[in-house]
Amino acid sequence: QGLLVESGGGLVQPGGSLRLSCAASGFIFDTFSKYEMKWYHRPPGKERELVAYISATGDRTNYADSVKGRFTISRDNIKNTLYLQMNNLKPNDTGVYFCYRPGYWGQGTQVTVSS
């Protein structure tokens, strides 16, 4: 049974940076590198929203308008890990961030942007 585990969240001041990681494990016959991956953001009291997408090979990415130019999604298919580099963070970026592979969600990591 596959598992996705996020890490890297925390408390940061506006304008700061964080790098989230999502480690995939247990996908024995269903390798990490075969699937597109996504990051979602759930603001406090709101629904989960898509913020970034990356193709299986990493050659295509897409971002929500709210994070374009500030966030970068990437992946390491050798390490079975997905990343989200978050720069120039804003208070509206506060919330729980989840990684997603078709059929699987991570448990989320909390990001709080506050002075």
Description:
This protein is mainly beta and 115 residues long. It has no helices and 11 strands. The chain has strands at residues 3-7, 10-12, 18-25, 37-42, 49-54, 61-63, 71-76, 81-86, 95-101, 104-105, 109-113. The strands form 2 sheets. Strands 2, 4, 5, 6, 9, 10 and 11 form a 7-stranded mixed β-sheet that branches. It has a 4-stranded antiparallel β-sheet with strand order 1-3-8-7, with no helix packed on it. Strand 4 and strand 5 form a beta hairpin. The protein is globular, with a radius of gyration of 13 Å. The chain starts with a strand and ends with a strand. The mean pLDDT is 95.
Cα Rg: 13 Å
Helix content: under 10%
Shape: globular
SSE ordering: EEEEEEEEEEE
Per DSSP E runs of 2 or more residues, the count of β-strands stands at: 11
How many helical elements?
A: 0
Give average pLDDT, whole number: 95
Beginning-to-end CA distance, first to last residue: 40 Å
Question: Which regions contain 5 or more consecutive residues with pLDDT less than 50?
Answer: none
In terms of DSSP E residues, the strand content is over 45%
Structural class: mainly beta
Largest sheet: 7 strands, mixed
